[in-house]
Design a protein that fits this description.
- The protein has 481 residues and is mainly alpha-helical.
- It is 44% helix and 11% strand.
- The strands form 6 sheets. The chain has a 3-stranded antiparallel sheet with strand order 3-6-9.
- A hairpin with a 2-residue loop joins strand 4 and strand 5.
- Helix 17 packs across helix 19.
- It is elongated, with a radius of gyration of 32 Å.
- 34% of the residues are buried.
- The structure holds one RNA strand of 75 nucleotides.
RNA sequence: GGCGCCAUGGUCAAGCGGUUAAGACAUCACCCUUUCACGGUGGUAUCACGGGUUCGAUUCCCGUUGGCGUCACCA
């Protein structure tokens, strides 16, 4: 049987990173086996509709490279792929009624007031369990209520004794007492199906073979099984994925700063890197590889290796990985992405391309660029003069000053300000003093940049800012002592 | 609170009865160098606890503890 998986987000307006990973795993499971990956929009909650939300889903999937084989935008043999459209055809109601006929579901006319009486509070959390009140309604009573236009919902009729066992491909068999199974609502009073019901019906109708979803649905899975059994349908494989958390081990929230795909993109992270990184949160290949593209990932992906325990999202490593992506990026693509940042922050007419190349291996995300290169415009007057003393190079401030003083006339006489010539010239001078190159260059770099770390060596900086500016900065430095 | 799931370093993790318990990020030290950075080498650091089973448990079982999830006409 052909593997078919689906990503079934509800249009909430943003792509949570855990959701993205679920989509990715679903995609990988399908594609690893040359299967189909479909997109289905679960918009059964009219109150939560967000404008433009569906576009965000399309965009995110596109950006992530997860192209679907069937979906609302491209159609397919088992459409429509938007649940609100499916509601119109009446399929959910039809199937719910089948369940009613079988005694597996029943009409419920309880109003909010009665329902709220069933609620109790435990540890500040409101919990409720339906008491099967309407199950005892006679057929005539139900008919009468329906005729009178009384609002109703349809509830699943779960047994109160015995146990139900379901199987998750990762977690194995999980058995629960049927007394734990609430008679959940299948059809809401507005005629829409609940998520749980629509999910089962659609996954079946769309021939989904592997249901990939978040771990938070684990506890409702037994009720799904009962539904499948009631219909006499084959139960798909369940693959529940563990959560991704922040460093406090709580669900990634907006407070975290990067809970959604968009947040991360805005931070300057590359989509392919995010996808790569997120794949590794809860899954690892049999090999030691860590950096790979979607295609490689698809080859390597074995969903049996998905972990069962939660993973903390480590921003530091994510950024490191992004830096690796930038480092290995083809020059053309790199320049295309980096130049806007360089253009924006360099106000002088100096070689901006050269500057861009200089920072390629030194940034983790593109927005790092301005901060790293702003010294090309001018040296921060308040820079730490103690930088001139450097233990590693056995250099004192006094020595730095004398180096700068001696080097100034040499550079004044130099006309060729290419990096190579500058380097050769200065090295020559260093040789006469028996200075190692590192020691000699240290004060020059500080004088030219005011920084301990720069995206270029001393002579490179000099060649980029040019002779006049170099001499000026050197003099300023000498005078600042 | 009931039910369920989970538990290897600070973080991601490999491991699937016998290992010096991989690797990566972070961290520390050293080395290199046409300069800082990069890079290289090495170090610190992990099997939550208590019982079993076994010749032998990180690995299997039970319990404890802890974390998380769930208990909506939300998904």
């Amino acid at each position: 049987m052909k593997v078919r998986t689906r990503f079934a987000p509800s249009p909430t307006g943003y792509m949570h990173i855990g959701n993205l990973r679920t989509a990715l795993y679903a995609y990988l499971i399908a594609k690893h086996d040359n299967g189909d990956f479909l997109l289905r929009i679960e918009d059964t909650d009219k109150n939560r509709e967000v404008e433009g939300a569906i576009d965000i889903i399309y965009n995110s999937l596109k950006l992530a490279g997860l192209s679907h084989d069937e979906g609302p935008d491209i159609g397919g043999p088992v459409g429509p792929y938007v649940q609100s459209e499916r509601v119109k055809s009446g399929i959910y109601m039809e199937y719910a009624k089948k369940l009613v006929e079988k005694g597996e579901a029943y009409y419920c006319f309880c109003d909010e007031e009665r329902l709220s009486k069933l609620k109790k509070t435990v540890n500040g959390e409101e919990i409720s369990f339906y008491d099967k009140h309407c199950l005892s309604l006679s057929k005539e009573e139900v008919e009468a209520n329906l005729k009178a236009g009384k609002p109703f919902v349809i509830r699943q009729n779960n047994p109160t004794t015995g146990t139900t066992t379901f199987n998750d491909d990762l977690y194995g068999d999980i058995t629960v007492d049927n007394s734990e199974l609430d008679d959940m609502v299948l059809i809401k009073s507005d005629g829409y199906p609940t998520y749980n019901f629509a999910n089962v019906v659609d996954d079946h109708l769309m021939n989904i073979t592997h249901v990939v979803r978040g771990n938070e649905y684990l506890s409702s899975a037994p009720k799904y099984n009962r539904l499948y059994d009631a219909f006499g349908w084959d139960i798909p494989k369940y693959i529940h994925c563990p959560p991704i958390t922040d460093e406090t081990h709580h669900k990634l929230s907006k407070r975290h700063g990067a809970a959604s795909f968009e947040d991360m993109i805005n931070l300057g992270l590359l989509p392919e890197c995010i996808v790569n990184f997120v794949a590794l949160l809860g899954w690892s290949p049999a090999s030691n590889d860590e950096i790979f593209d979607l295609q490689k990932m698809t080859e390597l992906f074995d969903y049996k290796r998905i972990s069962k325990s939660p993973a903390v999202l480590d921003m530091t490593k994510l950024k490191w990985m992004n830096g690796k992506y930038i480092e290995t990026m083809p020059k053309d693509k790199y320049l295309e992405m980096a130049m806007p940042y360089v253009e924006k922050s360099i106000t002088k007419s100096i070689d901006k391309k050269k500057i861009a190349i200089c920072v390629k291996t030194r940034i983790e995300v593109f927005p790092d660029i301005p901060e790293k290169i702003k010294f090309f415009n001018e040296v921060d007057a308040d820079y730490d003069k103690n930088l001139y003393a450097n233990e590693k190079n056995k250099l004192t401030k006094e020595e730095s000053l004398s180096i700068l003083k001696e080097i100034l006339p040499i550079l004044e006489e130099t006309s060729d300000f290419s990096n190579d010539n500058l380097f050769a010239t200065l090295k020559e001078y260093g040789k006469s003093k028996e200075f190692k190159v590192g020691k000699l260059m240290w004060p020059i770099r500080i004088a030219l940049s005011g920084l301990e770390n720069t995206p270029a060596g001393a002579t490179e900086i000099a060649s980029i800012i040019g002779k006049d500016e170099t001499l000026k900065r050197l003099k300023d430095a000498i005078n600042s002592f």
